[in-house]
């Protein structure tokens, strides 16, 4: 739930799409592990908040955790479509629409479809995730951007990367993600041959960033290259 983008980037070779390597692959493993932790935390909250108050929510929670156990051991087909008496995420969404468990099921289903390369289905599920947690919202927005880029919708993709970066900066607990998303946005602008916007976005990525951050070296290199080109 991954690969690596080439660090030796030449302007003409920038490919923010699946023509080279999946654009989000560099970040997938870290985001997936963090996402799993977020699901665990949110799931505990939802269980405490709702399970004992509403039987339907309790039923949904029980079903979710069965599917989630398959998800965690990479039995993704069972997690998505169910096995024996265990519902999959798709059935949980259909039967328990509007519950917190259904929201989390949308998120997990989106990750599964994303990693299978079914970007349209992943996008549909990511767009239906609606949670109050700021960190989860940043990840969802960024993933929506990834899906659009993978499908060639660069304008929509860059819009969501910028939105995710801005939300991350505004969110004191997850501001380290801002640079990653600004870098993604800059690479899209380079693909669109919008060098001025790419430079502006890379400067945002580097502003106040920790030089030890994973994205910093690549962002600095790209910015220097664009400045040298005039």
Overview of this protein structure:
This protein is mainly alpha-helical. It has two domains: 134 residues, no CATH class; 73 residues, Serine Threonine Protein Phosphatase 5, Tetratricopeptide repeat (Alpha Horseshoe), CATH 1.25.40. The chain has eleven helices and no strands. The longest helix is centred in the first third of the chain and has 26 residues. The protein is elongated. The N terminus is likely disordered.
What's the topology here?
Elements (H helix, E strand, L loop, with lengths): L24 H26 L4 H18 L3 H6 L7 H7 L4 H17 L2 H8 L7 H17 L3 H17 L6 H15 L3 H12 L9 H14 L1
Task: Write out key terms for the chains shown.
230 residues, mainly alpha, Serine Threonine Protein Phosphatase 5, Tetratricopeptide repeat, 68% helix
Protein structure class: mainly alpha
Number of strands: 0
Q: What does the largest sheet look like? A: none
Task: State the order of secondary-structure elements, H for helix, E for strand.
Answer: HHHHHHHHHHH
Global Rg: 19 Å
Shape designation: elongated
- Count of discrete structural domains: 2
Distance between the termini: 39 Å
DSSP helix fraction? 55-70%
The proportion of residues in beta strands is under 5%
Please report the number of helical segments.
11
- Low-confidence blocks of residues: 1-34
Mean pLDDT: 80
Structure in a nutshell:
The protein has 230 residues and is an all-alpha fold. The chain folds into two domains: 134 residues, no CATH class; 73 residues, Serine Threonine Protein Phosphatase 5, Tetratricopeptide repeat (Alpha Horseshoe), CATH 1.25.40. It has eleven helices and no strands.
């Amino acid at each position: 739930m991954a690969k690596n983008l080439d660090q030796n980037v030449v302007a003409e070779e920038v490919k923010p799409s699946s023509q080279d390597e999946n654009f989000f692959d560099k970040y997938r493993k870290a985001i997936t592990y963090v996402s799993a932790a977020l699901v665990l935390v949110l799931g505990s909250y939802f269980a405490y908040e709702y399970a004992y108050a509403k039987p339907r929510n309790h039923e949904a929670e029980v079903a979710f955790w069965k599917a989630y156990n398959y998800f965690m051991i990479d039995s993704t087909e069972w997690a998505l479509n169910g096995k024996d008496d265990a519902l999959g995420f798709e059935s949980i969404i259909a039967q328990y629409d509007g519950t917190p468990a259904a929201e989390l099921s949308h998120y997990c289903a989106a990750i599964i479809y994303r990693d299978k390369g079914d970007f349209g289905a992943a996008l549909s599920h990511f767009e239906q995730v609606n949670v109050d947690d700021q960190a989860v919202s940043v990840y969802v927005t960024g993933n929506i951007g990834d899906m659009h880029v993978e499908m060639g919708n660069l304008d929509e993709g860059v819009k969501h990367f910028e939105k995710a970066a801005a939300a991350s900066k505004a969110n004191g607990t997850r501001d380290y993600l801002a640079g990653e998303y600004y870098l993604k946005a800059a690479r899209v602008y380079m693909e669109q041959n919008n060098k001025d916007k790419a430079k502006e976005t890379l400067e945002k990525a580097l502003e106040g960033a920790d030089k030890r951050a994973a994205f910093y070296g690549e962002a600095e290199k790209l910015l220097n290259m664009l400045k040298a080109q005039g």
